[in-house]
Amino acid sequence: MKTKMLTFALAVFSLLACNHESMKPQAGYIGPADLKIEDGRMSPEVLLSLGRLSDPQLSPDGKTILYGVSYTSIADNRSVRNLFTIPVEGGDPTQLTMDGKSISNARWSPDGGWIFFLQGGQVWKAPYKAGKLGRRFQITDIERGVDEFTLSPDASQIMYVSTVHSAVERPVDTDPLLAKADAYATEDLMYRHWDHWVEDINHTFVAPLGNGIIKEGLDILGGSDVLYQLPNGPFGGIENLCWSPDGRYIAYSCKKKEGKEYAFSTDTEIYIYCILTGETTVIPMGGGYDTVPVWSPDGSKIAWLSMARDGYEADKVRLMVADVVYEPEGEGQTANPSVENIVDLTADFAYNADGPVWAADSKSLYINALVEGVQALYNVIADPETVFFRITAPNLWFDFGSPFAILQDGTLLTTYCSMDFPTELVSVKDTSIDQLTFENAHLLDQLDKHETEARMVPTADGGQMLTWVLYPPKFDPTKVYPAIQI
Fold it and tell me: Which residue of 38, 177, 398, 454 is surrounded by the most CB atoms within 10 Å?
């Protein structure tokens, strides 16, 4: 018996090893551009050839960063995104997939042994070991597909975004033979948003994992006849929903309005939804635009972004924080926690807050803010006596994203970009930065260097406005050049 088991184990190992060693580009695969830039000049072809790095995720053991890169084929007019890993200290990246169809939304399992991801509108998972992916397993088979997902903290549940039919009526709704007819009937607003007809709207669903392929989840808004959007379109994503640390609740941002009322209002509130009972309670802000809720790691606080005035899309973006108070546990089901002591941490901060991320001790948050033309990182003490610490120096002319992970020694892992290069991974420790990836070095190194200048210009109201001047390579101050104002 032992001999048979050993033989079986060796056979499986050999099969997996064979699959890894023979990983070859699939049909439709697009890899890094092998572009030769003879004249050293930036061009549309160079811009399209740059790899687009996105969505980094730190492994549970803190050793490996998982991320995706999209490459574009100019000839085929299409892009494909595949997955990579890199050691947390930087080094040579490892390519995990070479697919011809894009892979996105990749997430680690809590034990780091699996990677979940989206492909073809469904959720998949594959075992991860020794820097390689094993056989893939389909997790969902949702009729309308999955746009985004996130796992509960213990990976026992999945929350995913799909769509339901909007109030806009189409010929196909009554006659399947008219599927290609472009006609719409509606009696209210929001039948069109900018450049598209609103035929479908986002809804978010929850389902348990481990019970086979998921074909249908629980709509946390209550069903397809509820015509609120969750997350809000067209820009809102899964960042507007957040699991509580114990997986019992979901905090989400939603504008619970329809038709004309939806079109003319920005009144979006934060709600707390109980997975067990379906009870939903609102954080009472009395109007305005409240988004991106994030629970503290210990579950004792919740933070979110907020614009104060309803209907005013350019209001200051504030960082709010509040205490989460739970009822004593006893027999039976308990009510949703209450949210108390709401504080505006940015009352004395002149800039818009974005991308809040809690520190591990639940005592402070990290945010990014656009300050004097660059996206800077800050640490904010989550206390009524708020203190702001700017982490990235003013002379670093880079746009930093909020950290996607914080190491035990306080190092922040994040992304940055500039007017000279697209997004790369970077670590930030104290006042020093260390670039981890060099996705486009093979192209950027072929370009002639140029100078960038920060210039203040007077405004009509007597103020000063920051502008950036990008000089052409080999700039000669004695010559006259054409200028483009953006």
Answer: 398
Count the Cβ atoms, other than its own, within 10 Å of residue 147.
19
Q: Which residues of 407-437 are buried (b: 16+ CB within 10 A; e: fewer)?
A: eeeebbbbbbbeeebbbbbbbbeeeebeebb
Contact criterion met (CB below 8 Å) for 120 and 139:
no
Q: Are 96 and 132 in contact (CB under 8 A)?
A: yes
DSSP 10: H
d(CA 17, CA 132): 9
Secondary structure (DSSP) of 31-56: -------SS----HHHHHHS-EEEEE
Q: ω before 403 within 30° of 0 (cis)?
A: no
User: Tokens 């929903």, residue?
Assistant: 241
Instruction: Convert the pLDDT of each residue in 382-439 to its tens digit.
Output: 988 888 999 999 999 999 999 999 999 999 999 999 999 999 999 999 889 999 999 9
- DSSP category for residue 335: P
Are 426 and 433 contacting, i.e. CB atoms less than 8 angstroms apart?
yes
Domains of the chain in start order, with CATH, are: 11-362 (2.130.10)
- What does the pLDDT look like over 152-207, one tens digit per residue? 999 999 999 999 999 999 999 889 999 999 899 998 888 888 888 888 999 999 99
The model carries a pTM of 0.91
Q: What 8-state DSSP symbol labels residue 229?
A: B
The β-bridge partners of 368 are 354, 377
CB 111: neighbour CB atoms within 10 A?
A: 10
Strand boundaries in 11-138, DSSP class E:
52-58, 64-73, 78-87, 94-95, 104-108, 114-119, 122-129, 132-133, 137-138
321 contacts 303 by C-beta, under 8 angstroms: yes
